[in-house]
Write a structure and sequence with these properties.
Length: 840
């Protein structure tokens, strides 16, 4: 009898790794974790993405760089025409040549991961790095610096395979005078039969200077960014270079990686482990990754689940301005005892300790002992408020736009294990953002915080939070095989219920306070009390008379008291609905106004920039002419002539100045005063303002012109701008669509008929998207068909809503006259006696 060993095919081993690192985000995060486990104080991620596809044009500088690469140079000469200082892609070309160039260019892209950790010896590389599925980190939980290691399965290195086909690693171990260079081609796993046949190359580096290796990688990057790294010692560590990348690393993907890394570790851990992300295409956009600490919250809850199975909870109230609170509030019965007394309000927080049965009434099981200790920090932030609510609830002020921006970036309750986030819990724009199902919970109990009987439930998009667990204390939380989350075993389900019940403590506290404040407001505001009573009575009348006046003769019942009561009840409810719509509209306008305020605040600085932006190139030419007269450089090619380059700079500056002037013109103070305007003059001025900007997109704007007529109407100039700026912006976007023709014309005309002004707007674009089934949907707020490659909305969805809302403020109407191809809209406005057409 013989003992036979199992054999593992190289392809199977690779597939096991691929299943555990399914996407590029996860792969990058696995490599960052490795840096942390190696006791590094820094992790530098460099995206050296030179080309994502074949560009429409090359500069002469780019082409010179390829002079040593015969294959690329030959394909460029085949596919491109030289025009001055640029090489422009031909309109007709061989697709095989295009594909070949694309593959060669993308082969120039690299990703670097750099750390200053302990490095690896040749023995560690051979015994652990080259051993798939090693349990080294599982047995050796703590690093030399006392960090709890995050990896345990021994397959994280397959993250390298997920990112690219080739990998080169330079590593210098701590306290050694020898380093190592390791190379592997992951494609070999497909070609070889068994895992033992796949070989990596290991080369010794004698007397290495790791700092010089790091500098060599960073030499072409922004010097100001590199200065940030000098405080870290680079006497040892690891550099990984990944090439022949598998993903198309466009801006959207890098932005997503940056956003995921921002929430990868809690803020306090960033003091001992810094993460930097750099992108050669956006050198100023990305730098050190920092998770923002939340200091603009309404409520904060900090809960600890202890070894004694107690839950210690600290509740911080920052929503209410205690200096404004009416003294009578503390006399309301529900606020007379702890934790709602005046002393607690003025202190700003209180602490309590709970048993498990206090939070999960009726629980009798033993699973609670299997959860392990953890802590939970929760932040609640309402997104806006009305003027009435601010008075009623004594709210502290906050900036809705800043708060919404922060929540859009850092919102969601996230789960951390040993200081690293477990994906995808609380991840924005993922199905696991609301992993606690707080949204469903709120839908089942939609009561307002002031409701006397219903329970108010918080919405997940108003929360941000973090839960900290550990491999050492929460041993029953097991990873899914995909490394995406934890297994939904009984212990984890009980854990989630415990978290939800901690959230309930906050909800109960806030609802108790707001009910009392609502009672006080009703008591002090007789009109508000009567409004509520009127609404209640109206609802009762509607219910009582339901069906009574269906199919009746109006003339017979119009004087009936019951019928008149019914009409009044319907009108009361109509007023309530109109009020809610106005409040909703006001919130949207406040958010839009915040953006306008930013531009207005910097108007003076922007005017100075606009005034100085063109003269700088003139001054540069004057200085250069004093040194080298332009006539002496006439023999040079345009791409080598500095005067030609400066003229190109001026053209770009001219575009920037035009947009600055356009933005500043829109916020002029005189545009916010109602005036009697001549529409002929208005549209001619409007055409002049847009002319230069539209010329860049080869768009021709036609407006009515006359010397013998005037058409007067009394309006706010800023309203005219709002309507037609939005329409033109939509037309310009439409002209960029693939189904647009080369003809780009926008035509504005108007006429007066029967005391009404009809303004006709048309463009020659492709018209409304075929995805729009009901054309009137475009007038709904936040409706947009503009999306990025990942299907995310990139339009605001407010442009056409602003057009319709503005027109309706003048008691006008908006009608779509042309859907596709082309787009047309008719705006009708009523005219007063002194308005309309005048002939001279």
């Amino acid at each position: 009898m013989r003992a036979l060993p199992f054999k593992v095919s190289a392809r199977t081993a690779r597939l096991i790794g691929r299943e555990n690192v399914t996407n590029a985000d996860g792969a990058i995060i696995e490599l960052v974790k490795n840096c942390y486990d190696a006791d590094s104080t820094i992790c530098i991620i460099l995206f050296d993405i030179k080309y994502t596809t074949v560009p429409e044009e090359f500069s002469w500088v780019d082409v010179k760089k390829f002079s040593a690469n015969i294959s690329i140079s030959k394909l460029i000469s085949t596919l491109y025409n030289r025009k001055g200082a640029k090489y422009v892609l031909k309109e007709a070309y061989d697709q095989n040549d295009f594909n070949a160039l694309e593959q060669l260019l993308q082969g120039l892209n690299n990703i670097f991961i750099i750390d200053n950790g302990v490095g690896m010896t040749d023995k560690i590389i051979e015994d652990y790095w080259m051993t798939i599925g090693t349990n080294h980190k599982e047995k050796n939980v703590y690093s030399d610096q006392g960090r709890i290691r995050t990896g345990a399965k021994g397959i994280g290195r397959f993250a390298l395979d997920r990112l690219g086909n080739n990998c080169e690693m330079i590593t210098v171990p701590k306290g050694k005078n020898k380093g190592y260079k390791w190379n592997v081609c992951w494609g070999d796993f497909e070609e070889k039969e068994t895992i033992n046949e796949v070989k990596a190359q290991l080369e010794d580096i004698n007397n290495p200077y790791f700092y010089d290796e790091v500098v060599e990688v960073l030499k072409d990057w922004d010097e100001s960014a590199i200065e940030n790294f000098t405080k870290h010692e680079f006497t040892k560590g690891t550099i990984i270079k990944i090439s022949n990348l598998r993903d198309d690393w466009k801006n959207q993907m890098i932005e997503k990686i940056y956003a995921n890394l921002e929430t990868l570790i809690p803020p306090k851990e960033q003091k001992i482990f810094e993460i930097y992300l750099m992108d050669n295409n956006n050198p100023k956009k990305y730098r050190r990754i920092e998770n923002s600490i939340c200091d603009d919250f309404d409520y904060k809850i900090f809960a600890e689940f202890t070894e004694e199975r107690k839950i210690k909870v600290a509740t911080y109230r920052s929503e209410f301005n205690t200096t404004l609170i009416d003294e009578n509030l503390y006399s309301i019965p529900s606020l007379k005892s702890f934790p709602y007394t005046r002393e607690v309000f003025e202190k700003g927080f209180y602490e309590r300790e709970y048993d498990i049965t206090d939070l999960v009434p009726g629980y009798k099981g033993d699973l609670i002992y299997d959860i392990g200790v953890f802590d939970f920090t929760l932040y609640f932030m309402k997104k806006n408020y009305s003027r009435v609510d601010k008075s009623k609830f004594f709210y502290n002020d906050f900036n809705p736009k800043l708060r919404n921006d922060w929540l859009n970036k850092f919102g969601g309750i996230k789960l951390f294990r040993d200081m690293f986030r477990i994906r995808p819990y609380g991840e924005i724009e993922s199905s696991s953002f609301d992993w606690l199902n707080l949204g469903d919970r709120a839908d089942k109990s939609p009561a307002a915080p002031t409701h006397k009987l219903g329970k108010w439930r918080v919405r997940p998009n108003q929360l941000s939070g973090s839960i900290n667990i550990s491999r050492l204390t929460n041993i029953n939380f097991e990873d899914k095989s995909s490394r995406e989350g934890l297994q939904e075993n009984d212990v984890f389900v009980l854990f989630k219920n415990l978290i939800i019940n901690i959230v309930r403590l906050f909800e109960t506290d806030r609802q108790t306070v707001m009910r009392a404040m609502d009672d006080l407001y009703s008591k002090n505001n007789e009109s508000e009390r009567k409004r509520r009573e009127a609404k209640q009575i109206a609802n009762k009348v509607i219910q009582k008379t339901q069906g009574t006046f269906d199919n009746i003769d109006y003339e017979k019942v119009k004087n009936s008291l019951d019928f008149q009561t019914r009409v009044l009840a319907e009108r009361v409810l109509d007023f309530e609905k109109e009020k809610e719509e106005l409040i909703s509209e006001m919130k949207m306008l406040r958010a839009l106004g915040s953006t306008g305020l930013v531009i207005t605040s910097f108007a003076h600085e922007l005017k100075n920039i606009s005034a100085n932006i063109l003269p700088r190139t003139d001054e540069l030419i004057e200085i250069l002419t004093d040194i080298v007269p332009e006539s002496t450089l006439k023999g040079l090619n345009n791409e080598d002539n500095p005067f030609t380059l400066i003229k190109e700079f001026r053209e770009q500056d001219s575009r920037l100045k035009n947009w600055l002037d356009f933005s500043l013109d829109a916020i002029r103070k005189d545009k916010r005063t109602r005036k009697k305007l001549d529409l002929y003059a208005v549209f001619n001025d409007f055409e002049k303002v847009w002319r230069r900007s539209l010329s860049y997109s080869v768009v021709n704007l036609k407006v009515p012109k006359t010397e013998k007529k005037r058409c007067f109407i009394r309006v706010f100039p800023i309203d005219i701008d709002s309507i037609f700026n939005n329409l033109i912006a939509n037309s310009v976007d439409a002209f960029q669509r693939e189904d647009a023709s080369e003809v780009r014309i926008i035509n504005i005309d108007f006429k007066v008929e029967e005391n009404k002004l009809h303004i006709l707007y048309e463009d020659s674009g492709p018209g409304l998207s075929n995805d729009i089934k009901n054309e009137n949907e475009i007038f709904e707020s936040f409706y947009t068909t503009k999306r990025d490659a990942l299907g995310r909305e990139v339009g605001t969805g407010l442009g056409m809503w602003i057009v319709k809302s503005t027109v309706e403020e003048y008691r006008g109407t908006v009608e779509i006259t042309k859907k596709r191809p082309g787009f047309g809209i008719k705006i009708t406005l009523p005219l007063r006696k002194d308005e309309g057409m005048v002939y001279e």
